[in-house]
Specification:
Blueprint: H1 9-19, E1 26-28, E2 34-36, H2 42-53, H3 55-66, H4 68-79, H5 89-101, E3 106-109, E4 115-119, E5 127-133, E6 147-149, E7 152-154, H6 158-177, E8 185-191, H7 201-206, E9 215-221, E10 226-231, E11 233-242, E12 246-247, H8 257-276, E13 283-292, E14 298-299, E15 302-311, H9 314-338, E16 346-355, H10 365-376, E17 382-386, H11 391-396, E18 400-404, E19 408-410, E20 418-420, H12 425-439
Parallel strand pairs: 5-8, 5-9, 9-18, 10-17
Antiparallel strand pairs: 1-2, 3-4, 4-8, 6-7, 7-20, 11-15, 11-16, 12-14, 13-15, 19-20
Length: about 450
């Protein structure tokens, strides 16, 4: 999409609105069938088009374009503040300060490290959360310096998810400068612990108890048409087989942890196949890391692996989990039966993280507003499932989605990660449109 995406945005919106049918988008399932969303009402389409035609909204879109270089500078500045797993504090403090500088009076950092900023509505019967995670997958010491080549920015974490944090700041600035008032309260959040073994701890804490959140928007998507409406759940374990160990020749015959681990992997692979190959929602697993042993001529005293299982279907995820546990017990039994008189081997099962799975509410006002907003901007939504901060609210029954941060992302979670400024102001424009629709602009 060209950089001058916003030129004539209202005309594009009106043309797109006239061409749009009342049918909602269809959410593709993994077996190729379609689940049709509840039809969009004329009211949804007309309200979004009214927002895009509003003079102050048009000033906001002009501001996004005019302040593009400032937004990009903010993205670079924040990315060069390391935010490795469980060490997001310095970036959180910088984000909180920027929100305060924009005039939000109620800004704080909670017990687990989330940045939370409130923007009251004129009525405030509902609270809409807007969440961008601040953490990265990269360990301490990773060089997060940003390198720019043309319109592409290279650095670990630049697209996932520093770009989204910069988008949220740009939208807050436009709303503050232009005094764009909403009926409902907005809660802007920089979350922690979205990546890896963070296990969504930030959003888990945010939505604990009587959280009061009515709808939840995560900014963490890549492609502009990507609209995440369902949660891919995951079960993650660290497994350790333990035995007495010994010399490879002198103690030969003792229970062997590596052999037990190998048998467990094979057993699980075979038992998981009917689940992963069955019709319906996709189910996957991966033995991501293995280790153990002291030397080539030693029977190891322990052997470990880290395993990840995923599915949008909680039933399939549970079936994988059950098959995995049977495989572990089978491997332990078989290898212990092979040993001599030495000490028996044991297995430790450590739960290192669970993300709940679930189908989103395709007929919720949030999904309908997100669809209407995207179509009004000339983009047909592509409903998908993924694993994001939205997993937790979806699991709790709170309407939740994850939306695009704009631009083009490449090689996420790698040292070659990059983000290209290709029509990037779509991210700010779409998020603002969605917020004004969901929170009741001018009502």
């Amino acid at each position: 999409m060209p950089h001058r995406f916003l030129a004539g945005v209202v005309l594009i919106a009106l043309i797109a609105g006239c061409a749009t049918t009342a049918a909602g988008p269809q959410a593709p399932l993994e077996d190729g069938t379609q689940t049709e969303q509840a039809p969009l009402s004329q009211q949804h389409q007309e309200f979004v088009e009214t927002i895009l035609a509003d003079p102050n909204f048009q000033l906001a879109t002009e501001m996004f374009e005019r302040e593009r270089s400032k937004t990009l500078s903010t993205m670079v500045e924040l990315n060069e503040i390391p935010a490795p797993p469980f060490q997001e504090q310095v970036r959180a403090e910088a984000f909180a300060q920027k929100l305060s500088d924009l005039g939000l009076a109620d800004v704080s950092i909670d017990e687990v490290g989330n940045v939370i900023a409130h923007r009251p509505g004129t009525v405030g019967e509902r609270r809409i959360a807007v969440v961008a995670h601040m953490d990265t997958v990269f360990p301490p010491g990773t060089d997060v310096t940003v390198r720019k080549e043309g319109d592409t920015y290279f650095a670990p974490g630049i697209s996932d998810n520093t770009r989204a944090v910069a988008v949220v700041l740009a939208v807050v600035e436009a709303m503050q400068d232009l005094d764009l008032q909403t009926r409902e309260d907005l809660v802007f959040v920089g979350s922690v612990g979205e990546e890896g073994l963070g296990n969504l701890r930030g959003v888990r804490h945010l939505l604990r108890g009587d959280h009061g959140i009515s709808s939840f928007i995560a900014v963490d998507g890549g492609a502009q048409d990507r609209l995440i409406t369902s949660a891919v759940g995951s079960n993650r374990y660290r497994i350790t087989f333990k035995g007495p160990g010994g010399h490879s020749y002198g103690a030969f015959g003792r229970a062997h942890p590596h052999q037990a681990l190998s048998r467990a992997i094979v057993e699980f692979t075979e038992r998981a196949e009917p689940i992963t190959q069955s019709a319906g929602a996709k189910a996957t697993f991966s033995v991501g890391r293995i280790g153990g042993g002291t030397s080539i001529n030693s029977i190891p005293f322990e052997s470990w692996m880290e395993v990840d299982m995923r599915s949008v279907d909680p039933v399939k995820l549970e079936a994988l989990d059950a098959a995995f546990r049977v495989a572990l017990n089978t491997a332990l039994t078989v290898e212990n039966e092979r040993r001599g008189s030495a000490e028996a081997m044991t297995v430790d099962i450590e739960d290192v993280g669970k993300r709940p799975a679930g189908q989103g509410q395709l007929d919720s006002q949030l999904v309908l507003n997100a669809t209407a907003a995207m179509r009004a901007l000339g983009v047909e939504p592509n409903l998908q499932a993924s694993s994001t901060d939205a997993n937790i609210p979806i699991w709790l029954g709170v309407p939740a989605i994850t939306v695009s941060r704009g631009g083009r992302s490449q090689n996420a979670h790698s040292l070659d990660e990059s983000w290209t400024d290709d029509g990037s102001v779509f991210g700010e424009t779409y998020l603002l449109t969605l917020l004004l629709a969901e929170a009741g602009y001018g009502q």
